[in-house]
Automatic annotation (TrEMBL):
Name listed for the protein in its UniProt record: Uncharacterized protein LOC105179488 isoform X3
Family annotation (Pfam families): CIA30, NAD_binding_10
Gene behind this protein: LOC105179488
Residue ranges of domain NADH:ubiquinone oxidoreductase intermediate-associated protein in the record: 233-397
Domain NAD(P)-binding: 98-214, 400-509
InterPro entries, alphabetized: Galactose-bd-like_sf, NAD(P)-bd_dom, NAD(P)-bd_dom_sf, NADH-UbQ_OxRdtase-assoc_prot30
Highest rank taxon of the organism: Eukaryota
Record organism: Sesamum indicum (Oriental sesame)
Length: 565
């Protein structure tokens, strides 16, 4: 569609009066029309408007956010959100699943003491509030029932500690507080209580991963646009050039099926830019996403581009309104080279009508509505693009993806069990193995399904830590520890110590993508106590994590000797 506006409307000359007021009003009228045309078009093609001799300060106000007849402060109302919503979006909430269990409730306590935001996933609300307090941030759900894991429950969750486990207890019965099972030293003939290992450890794990995956993110990031191997995701881009201000620049976005880095498809932003008629910019912008893109699990956007030596801008919008703040950052390119450009969300600055808005709401990566790429003579706040040159330009873009900044820390910490790879291990002397290994079949293949659950985590793409404690006891934390890999050790360890390891792992890049076993050096026959007047020093668990290697699960034969730290 072509709309042409001159200084004559229906043959009647428009008054100019030597000022800009009249033309600003006309600009607002044009802008309102653009809003309707652009936002309602399903296959939106460029809307071209030619307006002769518009004053430059009016043009500049249009450059990045075409105005409409609202007061400058009205963007606040349009972007306004409750403080609770903002807190939910910006908090890095840690979800603890299995929060009423022996390890889970200790994890909750430790996280609270550190002042970290915690949400608990439990099956029994009354029990949880009695145990954890009436003010606990709580959601009720059952990982064995996917329908109970409602997406809204996990909004704001960035990390998970999973302490859910199939319930095992003595055949002869137990006390209401499960004292026989919890003590971990004396042997009682065990049986499964409640849901089967398959339902809890495997199906439940699958449900939990699916419920949190989008919120905690993937190590490889999330493809927002582009072509990557067998994966692709296209977006509806349309040109938005200085013709809206009477300029003559023009651009387009096309898919070149063979223009990519390795001969595959790529997108190309190309055009011709000119400063004639007070112009000087071209851009492409996506149509508003039907559902807001939530990239809050990530730290920025990475563009894979073939540069031309010029400086471009990325504009990200978090409102469906046309005339609103655009969170903007510039990036330089290297001529004739494919390069990856990382643009941290922290570098995005709120721009409204080419000016920085210092008191704008912080950028909310969970509510991304549209993207825009721009090549412009103008930066913002009156600055000019130092690389701007009139004429043809071309920027191939193979991908835009959200990324996690390095070093990556675990987003999913799982409490499993030592022994999960041993039931089918050839040549193993079962008489020297823990009861769960000897009784794996009788206990519904408990260790087999624990291993299957572990594999789901490792294959999910979520940065993880898998902790495999030996026999759990109610003894205090503080004993010297042995960390090992390969699933060979036996022994005992306190639940308090395991909880501390989980909390430390959340913050440690050294624990990321590691699977390990852990026990104390104290023999089973020797009780471990702590003198309250002389407690042991706190451990630096990073010293342990640094000794671990990725890719070791115990499925392979290692023959390593455990190394105390």
């Amino acid at each position: 569609m072509l709309i042409y506006l001159s200084r004559n409307i229906h043959g009647v000359p428009l008054p100019f009066y030597g000022g800009s007021t009249c033309w600003q009003k006309i600009g607002w009228i044009i802008s309102i029309s653009l809003v309707v045309l652009f936002s309602s078009s399903k296959s939106f093609s460029p809307v071209q408007i030619s307006a002769a001799c518009l004053p430059e300060k009016v043009i500049i106000s249009f450059l990045e956010n075409p105005p409409r007849s609202h007061s400058l402060g009205s963007w606040k109302a349009r972007l306004g959100r409750s403080e609770a919503e903002k807190a939910m979006d910006t908090s890095r909430i840690i979800l603890v699943a299995g929060a009423t269990g022996g390890v889970g409730r200790r994890v909750v306590d430790l996280l609270r003491k550190k002042g970290l935001p915690v949400r608990v996933l439990v099956r029994n609300e009354e029990k949880a509030r009695r145990m954890l307090g009436p003010d606990v941030d709580l959601i009720v759900g059952d990982i064995t029932k996917a329908s109970t894991l409602i997406p809204e429950y996990f909004k704001g969750v960035r990390m998970v500690v999973n302490a859910v486990s199939v319930i095992v207890g003595p055949k002869e019965g137990d006390t209401p507080d499960r004292a026989k099972y919890s003590q971990g030293i004396k042997f009682f003939e065990p049986e499964i209580k409640g849901d089967s290992p398959e339902m809890v450890e495997f199906i439940g794990m699958k449900n939990l991963i699916n419920a949190v995956k989008e919120n905690v993110g993937l190590r490889s990031g999330k493809l927002v646009f582009g072509f990557e191997g067998t994966s692709s995701r296209e977006l509806p881009w349309g040109a938005l050039d200085d013709v809206v201000m009477g300029g003559v620049s023009e651009s387009t976005f096309q898919i070149d099926p063979n223009g990519g880095e390795n001969g595959g498809p790529t997108g190309i932003f190309r055009g011709v830019v000119s400063t004639a008629n007070n112009g000087g910019f071209t851009s492409i912008r996506t149509r508003n996403f039907s559902i807001a893109e939530d990239l809050s699990a990530y730290d920025g956007l990475e563009l894979r581009i073939k540069g031309d030596g010029r400086r471009y801008k990325l504009i990200v919008r978090t409102s469906r309104d046309w005339d609103t703040v655009g969170y903007t950052t510039g990036f330089d390119t290297v001529k004739d080279q494919w390069q990856s450009v990382r643009l941290p969300f922290s570098s995005l600055r709120p721009i409204f009508r080419a000016r920085t808005i210092p008191d704008a709401p912080p950028f909310n990566p969970s509510e991304i509505i549209s993207l825009q790429l721009m090549f412009s003579k103008f930066e913002y706040d009156g600055k000019l693009n130092p690389t701007f040159v009139e004429g043809q330009f071309q920027l191939p873009i193979s991908t835009i993806r959200a990324y996690m900044k390095e070093p990556i820390t675990p987003r999913f910490v799982h409490v499993s069990s030592a022994g999960v790879t041993r039931p089918d291990r050839p040549g193993l002397d079962l008489s020297k193995q823990p009861p769960a290994v000897r009784l794996n079949r009788e206990l519904g293949f408990i260790l087999t399904y624990k291993l299957k659950g572990e594999d789901l985590i490792r294959e999910s793409g979520i940065p993880y830590t898998i902790v495999r404690p030996c026999a759990l006891t109610e003894e205090p934390a503080g004993a010297d520890l042995i960390f090992d890999q390969g699933d060979n050790i036996t022994g005992k360890i306190s639940r308090e110590e395991v909880a501390r390891i989980c909390v430390a792992a959340i913050e440690s890049p050294y624990a990321c993508d590691k699977t390990f076993e852990v026990k104390s050096v104290i023999p089973f026959s020797e009780p471990y106590t702590v003198d309250p007047e002389n407690p042991p020093p706190e451990k630096d668990y990073n010293l342990y994590f640094q000794t671990l290697k990725e890719g070791i699960t115990g499925k392979e034969s290692l023959g390593q000797t455990p190394v105390p730290v």
